[in-house]
Amino acid sequence: MPATSPPAFPAAYPELNVKPIAARYEDGLSLLDPTHENTLLIWLGSSIGNYERERAKKFIASLSNQLSAGDRLLLGIDLIKDPVMLEAAYNDRAGISAAFNLNILKRINRELGGNFRIKQFKHRAVFNSALGRIEMYLISCCDQEVRISEPGLTVSFSKGESIHTENSYKYSTGEIEALGRSAGLRMLHQWLDSGHLFSLNLFEV
Prior knowledge:
Layout: H1 9-12, H2 25-29, E1 40-43, H3 53-65, E2 72-78, H4 83-90, H5 96-112, E3 121-128, E4 133-140, E5 144-148, E6 153-157, E7 162-169, H6 173-182, E8 186-192, E9 198-204
Parallel strand pairs: 1-2
Antiparallel strand pairs: 2-9, 3-4, 4-7, 5-6, 8-9
């Protein structure tokens, strides 16, 4: 018997009013409708980890301020885990993270008139245990000079010198609950996978 596709979400749950939002984080807040009752705001993935911790608190508070008492927020957050596992994931053998990181230089070349020689940089990711975050770098493989036309900038790199490109913060379960509390949210439930690698967190205003 041929496999059948699952029904679309609105068709499967016709009693729900589903409003997808595609926007930058802060811009998306203006699209929330506070007049709806029993609102569930869903933010999957672990994009909250892209924020510095204090900035994450402010953003979650801004979400909470757009909701009413009794409304809920379902939030995905990546968990702190074995540093060896984390560094292996961000230095994956397939080179996916490296390609993502090096694409920054390609965009500078394309959009700002840079002359980065991509093959003269290599990707490296390390876990900073003191700050609880993965840090991504691009390391210069040689002494070199790069010109970026748009700002009229010339940058010299020594061999081994790095460009700090991204941080990805990881949280403990206790930190997640405290994050919600700081925004006036109460933890209702927390779902973890069998390896305690990732969390889905249901908060209520």
